[in-house]
Amino acid sequence: MRNILVINPNSSRATTSMMVNIAADEAPAGVAVSGLTAQRAPLMIVNQQELDAAALEVEATWRSAQAEGWSGVIISAFGDPGVHLVRRTTDLPVVGICESSMLEAAEGGRRFGIATVTPDLADAINGKARELGLAELFTGIRLTSGDPRALTADPQALDAALAQAVRQCIEQDQAEAVIIGGGPLGQAALQLAPRFQVPVIAPISAAVRRLLRLMAPAPASAMAQG
Fold first, then answer.
1. How far is CA 74 from its chain centroid?
2. Distance between CA atoms of 54 and 32, rounded to whole angstroms?
3. Burial class of 3 by CB neighbour count within 10 A (0 to 12, 13 to 18, 19+)
């Protein structure tokens, strides 16, 4: 049995459960998924200051759990806080949901955009596209209006607002794929995907797919038992 750890840099345990469920649905037989929640963090990261602070919380969360026999780690906030810090402490594959979804969205040279709820994280998201060498394919960010935390507390309003942002990415920016940019938006991303003819990428699912490619294969004995 291989084990994936999902670290939620937000402090909401309910959000962690949602993230773990999405990751588990994407994982094949023989791969278990567990989650840990950052203790000293906002319920939802919405600005650069919170993102920076979350990096240290992610590292601390990882250090408390790294002896548990994991096969790979997912950092599940859109901004990938702490991903580089965790990589320095382990030889295991460690992926962030932002980098994973961008790399998947850009496959084959596709132009991609991002629909999200956090305007104060736009600079961090743009920086990630540059860091990955994808700036020329990135069509930009389309944002919902209003307070991000209030919007995510209303699933119907969130769904409608993100759908409009996805349409803007496609119709106005000519994006050929659209990422729903946020770990807490994971369930909304799955619900929106079937409504559009271009790929709408759920970042947690993308991170699982990438991590599975990076993880060591299961031992032959474990595969036989599974």
1. 8
2. 25
3. middle
Q: Identify the bridge partners of residue 4 per DSSP, sorted by sequence position.
A: 33, 72
Both structure tokens of 206: 């993308």
Q: Which two tokens stand for residue 118?
A: 């956090």
Stated length of the chain: 226
Which residue do the tokens 């670290």 mark? 7
Query: What is the residue type of 193?
Result: A
Q: pTM for this structure?
A: 0.93
E-assigned strand segments in the chain: 2-8, 31-37, 72-75, 94-96, 112-116, 138-143, 177-180, 200-201
Say which residues have a Cβ less than 8 Å from residue 170's Cβ, sequence separation at least 6. Answer: 113, 178, 196, 198
Query: How are beta strands 72-75 and 138-143 bridged, if at all?
Result: unpaired
Q: Model confidence over 34-81: pLDDT tens digits?
A: 999 998 888 899 999 999 999 999 999 999 987 778 999 999 999 999
Q: What percent of the chain has a predicted confidence (pLDDT) above 70?
A: 96
Q: Number of C-alpha atoms within 13 angstroms, CB side, residue 43? A: 8
Angstrom CA distances, 191 to 9, 14, 82, 87, 180, stand at 23, 18, 28, 32, 11
pLDDT for res 218: 64
What order do you get walking across the sheet with 94-96 strand by strand?
Answer: 31-37, 2-8, 72-75, 94-96
Inform me whether the pLDDT recorded for 15 exceeds 90.
yes
